[in-house]
From TrEMBL:
One of the Pfam families matching this protein, by short name: Methyltransf_11
Organism expressing this protein natively: Uliginosibacterium silvisoli
Regions crossing the membrane: none
GO molecular function, one term: methyltransferase activity
UniProt signal peptide: none
Coiled-coil regions, chain positions: none
Protein name listed in UniProt: Methyltransferase domain-containing protein
Alphabetical UniProt keywords: Methyltransferase, Transferase
Domain called Methyltransferase type: residue spans: 55-149
Gene Ontology BP, a term: methylation
Domain of life: Bacteria
């Protein structure tokens, strides 16, 4: 089966990287603990060791990259790439001596030599990658024989509860259709599609499945900040002040239905996978 055919049923999105801003990047660095926490699960699966060379694709503001840099120190290094310059600037200020970050995209890893890395990972990034087969081919090239790939990504078959709530709140608030949030994560793949893509790229030892992540959401504003900053402005259109007020109020009302004694709890559904580049390659 061709890799093009593998993606025939995957919703495509035109991601606008120019929607990001210094304010969104700073907000993400403050509220991005959600991605950081499930990223630590991915890193535990990959088990990077001191001295290993690691590539963090979609490194954002460097929260996870700095964490991994500590794990591979003192002689290992983490290289991060991200297409968003404002986030790269923040990551570069993390001050981790063995963590280096540059602007770049998953589909073009030409700045790195073949067989360079022991570990490559993408934390909440793969659904944003436009040309997934090309990205996987590049990752395969830069991994050493026996090197490990790990990623997590939205599950196309199970939209996050927050995505559904945002869409329902927009409807309730009378937000125009062209400003409506997506009801699911466009660009996400199913478990079967992801395994087929990984296998077609030449990887072996595929292990994966969907995990449920439970977030505590203090209030609607927190969810809005996370949604806008984690999608670098792609998940919600710009609202005028009255629309914003109506939307936030409608969202808070809907969130209250999910309140438990410990707070408002929402589920997210992420596919986690690991695989290896065969040693014989």
């Amino acid at each position: 089966m061709s890799q093009t055919h593998l993606l025939d049923s995957v919703p495509r999105r035109q991601v606008n990287f120019n929607l990001d801003s210094p304010e969104l990047a700073e907000t993400y660095d403050r509220v991005g603990v959600r991605q950081f926490n499930h990223g630590k699960q991915l890193i535990a699966d990959l088990d990077p060791q001191p001295g290993e060379q690691v590539l963090d694709i979609g490194s954002g503001t460097g929260l996870l990259g700095a964490y991994v840099a500590e794990k591979v120190s003192p002689n290992g290094r983490v290289f991060g790439i991200d297409p968003l310059p404002h986030r790269v600037d923040i990551a570069a200020r993390k001050g981790q001596p063995n963590f280096e970050v540059h602007v770049g995209r998953a589909e073009d890893l030409s700045q790195f030599a073949s067989n360079s890395f022991d570990v490559v990972y993408l934390n909440s990034v793969f659904h944003w990658v436009e040309d997934k087969p090309k990205a996987l081919a590049e990752i395969f090239r830069v991994l050493k024989p026996g090197g490990r790939l790990g990623l997590n990504s939205g599950d196309a078959e199970r939209p996050h509860q927050s995505a559904t709530l945002l869409r329902d709140a927009a409807d309730a608030a009378g937000i125009p259709a062209d400003k409506q949030p997506h009801g699911r994560q466009l660009g996400a793949v199913s478990n079967a599609q992801l395994q087929a893509l990984i296998d077609a790229a030449g990887f072996s030892d595929y292990r994966g499945g969907t995990r449920t992540i439970v977030d505590t959401v203090p209030h609607a504003q927190d969810l809005l900040e996370w949604s806008r900053s984690s999608s670098f402005g792609n998940s919600l259109g710009k609202f005028d002040p009255s629309e914003e007020t109506r939307f936030r109020g409608a969202l808070q009302t809907k969130l209250e239905a999910y309140r438990k004694p410990e707070g408002i709890l929402l589920e997210r559904y992420l596919i986690f996978i690991t695989a290896r580049k065969p040693r014989a390659s």
